[in-house]
């Protein structure tokens, strides 16, 4: 690793999905291992933009950002700009054609090369563009600087073997590559040893995990094996695919205490005709059957989804089918998207693109329907007692309202009054839900109980490290109390955007 970069500072800006946020943790880890430090003064020597090609107008946003950075580049000798992620994988050298002041372009398959590319660009005084067609090093084997002390992500696979016609992922992230279970479990164990209580297993299509080494039941087995790890209290995963979601996974979820009662199950459309055009191989009846079986085994499961409105050729009847399936599904919440053309995808050149005003009108009806259902489902939570893993950065108004925030077991966002024994991020607060809103729950009576955890201790240590105060080590519930730095749980960690 290069050492000439010592004392140089960096900032990573992240766009897009959880996969990108996780990749940014690897980018930070790789940079820090190479001697860089995270900028704390807003004046980094290196800015890294981890781009997304899935979201609408991604390229306009990127070039808008780069336009602003051109001035900094002119004014500050030694300032470097690196662009990575899906849009970089897609646009490659055309990024330096359009923005010649960019120093480094790297793709989704070589995030570990960033420090070397930065050094090479500084040394040679010219832009370095390196895009690989396939993965050389599995990203999870790179050093990581984690965003959170109490929760972490672990990639189980990258890439996707499906060919959904609206999606650019297969062409940018390649075919599915699975990590071996032993490696995944070792990484989960390392996170737990570091203080994490919660792990989210990450892949473009988690339940096809095992396809590469020929075990169709591998994902359910992985959930069960992770559930055996001592100290791991919460296991989540994203995203499954309805086509390959089999009952052994539902059984593993129901029978593994640490797997949380939550499922993100992308519907995309309720119309079988549109699903066919999207090249999604399940149909709405199968989708609803999965939800029934999940709820039968896990009665309080909160199920969320993704839906695209206005896919090419979507008729009024197709859209009414989506409304019907959404009504029947009782999702806790939904990410709803208006279809827009993504260059490079098969759907981009399909005939019968739906006019913008029609998409808008359907979208508003769908959002209104889902908001009503979310509110009804949240109201049904009032009076329940839930365990909240206290988090940072999730309650934007916490400082004003004097509340803390976190996630219940089913991943619902809960804002709560801290009570006498203010829990730290990473601690577990047991609260009674007193009010519901469409997008969160409130618990205004203060916690019934607070469990101080290893994750809370890890949070204390990270806070003490960052301000130079020596931290007490160990403890958990037994170690709580006198002499411990008091944390108000206010957001201070930077969360990727
Ligand atoms: S399953 Fe479909 S939407 Fe998901 S990553 Fe693969 S191709 Fe894209």
Could you provide a short overview of the structure?
InterPro entries: Elp3/MiaA/NifB-like_rSAM, Methylthiotransferase, Methylthiotransferase_CS, Methylthiotransferase_N, Methylthiotransferase_N_sf, MiaB_methiolase, rSAM, rSAM_horseshoe. The chain is of the alpha/beta class and 497 residues long.
Relevant terms:
497 residues; alpha/beta; Rossmann fold; pyruvate-formate lyase- activating enzyme; OB fold (Dihydrolipoamide Acetyltransferase, E2P); 7-stranded mixed beta sheet; 6-stranded parallel beta sheet; 16 helices; 21 strands; disordered N terminus; binds iron/sulfur cluster
Description:
This protein is α/β, with parallel strands linked by helices. It has 3 domains: 9-130, Rossmann fold; 145-379, tm_1862 like domain (pyruvate-formate lyase- activating enzyme), CATH 3.80.30.20; 385-479, OB fold (Dihydrolipoamide Acetyltransferase, E2P) (Beta Barrel), CATH 2.40.50. 35% of the residues lie in helices and 18% in strands. The protein is built from 16 helices and 21 strands. The strands form 5 sheets. It has a 7-stranded mixed sheet with strand order 19-20-17-16-15-18-21. β3, α2 (58-75) and β4 (80-85) form a beta-alpha-beta unit. Bound molecules: iron/sulfur cluster.
Mean pLDDT: 87
CATH architecture of the largest domain: Alpha-Beta Horseshoe
What is the terminal separation in angstroms?
A: 29 Å
> In CATH's first tier, which class of the largest domain applies?
Alpha Beta
Strand residues, percent: 15-25%
Kindly identify the CATH topology of the largest domain.
pyruvate-formate lyase- activating enzyme
Specify Rg, calculated over alpha carbons: 23 Å
- Number of helical stretches of at least 4 residues: 16
Bound molecule kinds, no repeats:
iron/sulfur cluster
Largest sheet: 7 strands, mixed
Total beta-strand segments? 21
Shape: globular
Low-confidence stretches: 1-5, 468-497
Please bin the fraction of helical residues: 25-40%
Secondary-structure class: alpha/beta
How are the strands of the biggest sheet laid out side by side?
Answer: 19-20-17-16-15-18-21
Q: Mind telling me the CATH superfamily name of the largest domain?
A: tm_1862 like domain
Number of domains: 3
């Amino acid at each position: 690793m290069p050492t000439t970069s010592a004392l140089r500072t960096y900032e990573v800006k992240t766009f897009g999905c959880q996969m990108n946020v996780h990749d940014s943790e690897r980018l930070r880890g790789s940079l820090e291992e190479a001697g860089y430090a995270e900028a704390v003064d807003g004046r980094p020597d290196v800015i890294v933009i981890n781009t997304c090609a899935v979201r609408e107008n991604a390229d306009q946003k990127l070039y808008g950002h780069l336009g602003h950075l051109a001035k900094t580049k002119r004014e500050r000798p030694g300032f470097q700009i690196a662009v990575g992620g899906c849009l970089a994988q897609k646009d490659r050298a055309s990024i330096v054609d359009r923005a010649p002041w960019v120093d480094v372009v790297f793709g989704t398959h070589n995030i570990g090369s960033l420090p070397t590319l930065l050094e090479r660009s500084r040394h040679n005084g010219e832009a370095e563009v390196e895009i690989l067609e396939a993965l050389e090093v599995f990203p999870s084997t790179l050093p990581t600087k984690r965003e959170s002390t109490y929760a972490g992500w672990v990639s189980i696979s990258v890439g996707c073997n499906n060919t959904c016609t609206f999606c650019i992922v297969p062409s940018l992230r390649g075919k599915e590559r699975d990590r071996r279970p032993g490696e995944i479990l070792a990484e989960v164990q390392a996170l737990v040893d570091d203080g994490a209580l919660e792990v989210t297993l990450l892949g473009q299509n988690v339940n096809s995990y095992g396809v590469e080494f020929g075990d169709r039941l591998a994902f359910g087995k992985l959930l069960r094996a992770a559930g055996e790890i001592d100290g791991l209290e919460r296991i989540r995963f994203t995203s499954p695919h309805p086509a390959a979601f089999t009952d052994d996974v539902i059984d593993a979820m129901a029978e593994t205490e640490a797997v949380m009662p939550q499922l993100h199950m992308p519907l995309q459309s309720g119309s079988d005709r549109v699903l066919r055009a999207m090249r999604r191989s399940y149909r709405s009846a199968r989708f609803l059957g999965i939800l029934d079986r999940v709820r039968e085994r896990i009665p309080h499961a909160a199920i969320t989804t993704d839906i695209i409105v206005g896919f090419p050729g979507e008729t009024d009847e197709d859209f009414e089918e989506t409304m019907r399936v959404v009504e029947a599904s009782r999702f806790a919440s939904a990410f709803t998207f208006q279809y827009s053309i993504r260059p490079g995808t098969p759907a981009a050149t399909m005939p019968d693109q739906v006019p913008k005003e029609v998409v808008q009108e359907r979208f508003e009806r769908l959002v209104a329907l889902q908001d009503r259902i979310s509110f009804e489902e949240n109201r049904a939570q009032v009076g329940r007692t839930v365990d909240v893993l206290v988090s940072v950065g999730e309650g934007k108004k916490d400082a004003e309202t004097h509340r803390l925030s976190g996630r219940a077991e089913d991943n619902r966002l809960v804002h709560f009054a801290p009570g006498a024994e203010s829990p730290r991020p990473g601690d577990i607060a047991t609260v009674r839900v007193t009010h519901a809103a469409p997008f969160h729950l409130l618990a205004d009576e203060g916690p019934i109980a607070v469990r101080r955890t290893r994750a809370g201790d890890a949070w204390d240590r990270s806070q003490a490290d960052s301000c130079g105060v020596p931290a007490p080590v160990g403890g958990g519930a037994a170690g709580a109390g006198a002499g411990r730095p008091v944390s108000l749980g206010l957001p201070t960690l930077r969360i990727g955007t």
